[in-house]
Design goal:
This protein is of the alpha/beta class. The chain has 3 domains: 123 residues, Rossmann fold (3-Layer(aba) Sandwich); 88 residues, no CATH class; 124 residues, Nucleotidyltransferase, domain 5. It is built from 14 helices and 17 strands. A 7-stranded mixed β-sheet has the order 3-2-1-4-5-6-7, covered by helices on one side. Strands 8-12-11-9-10 form a 5-stranded mixed β-sheet. A 5-stranded mixed β-sheet has the order 15-14-13-17-16. Helix 1 links the parallel strand 1 and strand 2. It is globular and about 70 Å long. This is Cobalt-precorrin 5A hydrolase. Pfam families: CbiG_C, CbiG_mid, CbiG_N. Keywords: Hydrolase.
Length: 352
């Protein structure tokens, strides 16, 4: 986490220096008349400084009155899945207030770290933490899962706080591990059990289709990021065609795009503009493997004479998907679709 520490007083500058020495990846910005040492001096108003720094940092520690912070960040806010963590610390270092993005942004944890370094009292106001209950957004964050509809987190966390029964359909077992027996949770074996539970809400962990018959307004879907796409394509294939093939075959298997971890291909495709553009659009890492690496992987489909003649690899899509999955298994053998060949593997850590 890249953190900007901002101080506007002499005491604040000293606190900021303490925090900078104890927190990794931090930059200290101090009003120029108080700036010394490694501090970056600034002369502009705090709202102007915050607007300038906002896109470049994952967290902010503001050593100043909470009111100044609130007025400074208000025009910059977008949503709880996008906003950085913001912690406000008073000039005397008595309190470290988790002000914004306590869960997904990490402000609660940042507040605790600041408190430990300065001797301040961490102030955490998120309801689940205040009541010593788990929260479903933190569950997702800690497991690296994606959330289908962020608005459902508020609904399910509220049900948890109210002690309402929540049915959980989770083949990973990680929800039970995280919740540790807290909350009125009913862990179900399958969709039929979940539907028969007459629960007030539902949590579903899946990379696939959500069971029919659930009330979407009270269902939180969490997506493990576990699918690795192996892609081969003819030279000059457009990003639009690659994207269409990816979406089509995920849809045919009822798999969610949110569960895709990465795309993978042959090293010979490292300059393939359409492939690079498709991965960029989707915000996915794109991994490349040498022909030697690809040839060492056992795959179910017969070797491709075309691929071997072109790049010296007996196949691309299947071995690339398997290599990217770190020893996982194929859930879609290679399929040729127009100028694109696709295979899908599920990562090893996803074998429950």
């Amino acid at each position: 986490m890249r953190v900007a520490i901002i101080a506007i007083t002499a005491n604040g500058a000293k606190l900021g220096a303490t925090l900078k020495s104890g927190l990794p990846l931090t930059s200290l910005f101090v009003l120029e008349k108080h700036a010394t040492g490694e501090a970056v001096p600034f002369a502009e108003r705090v709202p102007t400084l915050m607007a300038r720094l906002w896109p470049d940092f994952d967290g902010f520690v503001c050593i100043m009155a909470t009111g100044i912070v609130v007025r400074s960040i208000a025009p910059l806010l977008k949503g709880k899945d996008e906003d950085p963590a913001v912690v406000a610390i008073d000039d005397a270092g008595r309190f470290a207030v988790s002000l914004l993005s306590g869960h997904l942004g990490g402000a609660n944890a940042l507040s605790a770290s600041c408190a430990e370094l300065t001797g301040a009292t961490p102030v955490i106001t998120t309801a689940t933490d205040a009541n010593e209950l788990p929260s479903f957004d933190m569950l997702a964050k800690e497991n690296g899962w994606r959330i289908d509809d962020l608005s459902r987190v508020k609904v399910l966390n509220a049900l948890l706080l109210e002690g309402k029964r929540i049915a959980v359909l989770d083949p990973t077992g990680k929800v039970a591990d995280y919740c540790g027996g807290k909350g009125n949770l009913l862990f179900c074996r399958d969709a039929d059990d979940a539907l028969a539970a007459s629960a007030d809400g539902m949590v579903v962990v899946t990379s696939g289709a959500v069971p029919q018959g659930l009330d979407p307004s009270r269902t939180l879907v969490l997506r493990p990021v576990e699918l690795c796409l192996g892609i081969g394509c003819n030279r000059g294939t457009s990003a639009d065609e690659i994207e269409a093939v990816v979406e089509r075959h995920l849809s045919l298997l009822s798999l969610s795009m949110k569960s895709v971890r990465c795309m993978a291909s042959a090293e010979a495709k490292a300059d393939e503009e359409g492939l690079l553009a498709c991965a960029g659009r989707k915000g996915l890492p794109l991994l490349f493997f040498s022909s030697d690496e690809l040839n060492k992987v056992a795959v179910p489909s017969p070797p491709s004479e075309h691929a071997f003649a072109a790049i010296g690899a007996r196949g691309v899509a299947e071995p690339a998907a398997l290599l990217a999955s770190d020893g996982g298994s194929l859930i879609l053998k290679k399929v040729k679709d127009g100028n694109v060949t696709i295979a899908i593997a599920i990562a090893r850590c996803a074998h429950y």
